[in-house]
């Protein structure tokens, strides 16, 4: 089995050695990895994500992953399908991106 290389910070080009130091965010149209201190130094326009500049592996994104689909299901049940189906599909995007970030980078790193 081949050993997975540690992700490299998009800002300083140094390897990221633990999950505690990893931050993932969108830069342009691709998912980039950063050190926690490096992503704090970037302007919001450069480290852009679907949640207004919030990196994907934060508590705010985790709450959005849970609450957005629940809210959209609640609206689907109470208001009928209509345009709420589109809102439900869009509300799944942060969950899909969060899972992709975990699958691609976080699961290969040690927890501390």
In a few lines, what is going on in this structure?
The chain is an alpha+beta fold. Helices cover 42% and strands 11% of the residues.
Which features does this protein show?
alpha+beta; 4 helices; 112 residues; two-stranded antiparallel ribbon
Lay out the secondary structure.
Blueprint: E1 22-27, E2 30-35, H1 36-41, H2 59-79, H3 84-91, H4 93-104
Antiparallel strand pairs: 1-2
Helix pairs in contact: 2-3, 2-4
Q: How many domains make up the coordinates?
A: 1
| Structural class designation | alpha+beta
Radius of gyration: 16 Å
Count the E strands.
2
Strand order, sheet with most strands: 1-2
Strand content: 5-15%
Which regions contain 5 or more consecutive residues with pLDDT less than 50?
A: none
Most strands sheet: 2 strands, antiparallel
Global outline: elongated
Percent helix: 40-55%
Average pLDDT, to the nearest integer?
79
The helix-strand sequence is: EEHHHH
Assembly status: single chain
Our measurement of the CA-to-CA distance between the termini, rounded to an integer number of angstroms, reads 23 Å
Number of helical stretches of at least 4 residues: 4
Describe the structure.
The two termini are 23 Å apart. This protein is an alpha+beta fold and 112 residues long. Helix 2 packs antiparallel against helix 3 (84-91) and helix 2 runs antiparallel to helix 4. Strand 1 (22-27) and strand 2 (30-35) form a beta hairpin. The mean pLDDT is 79. It has one domain (19-108). Strands 1-2 form a two-stranded antiparallel sheet. The protein is elongated. 42% of the residues lie in helices and 11% in strands. The longest helix is centred in the middle third of the chain and has 21 residues, at 59-79.
């Amino acid at each position: 089995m081949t050993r997975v290389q540690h992700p490299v910070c998009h800002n300083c080009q140094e390897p990221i050695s633990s999950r505690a130091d990893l931050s993932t965010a969108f830069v342009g149209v691709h998912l980039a990895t950063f050190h926690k201190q490096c992503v704090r130094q970037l302007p919001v326009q450069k480290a852009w994500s679907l949640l207004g500049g919030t990196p994907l592996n934060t508590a705010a994104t985790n709450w959005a992953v849970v609450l957005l689909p629940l809210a959209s299901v609640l609206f689907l049940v109470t208001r009928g399908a209509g345009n709420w189906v589109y809102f439900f599909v869009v509300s799944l995007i942060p969950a899909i991106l969060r899972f992709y970030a975990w699958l691609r980078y976080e699961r290969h790193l040690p927890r501390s």
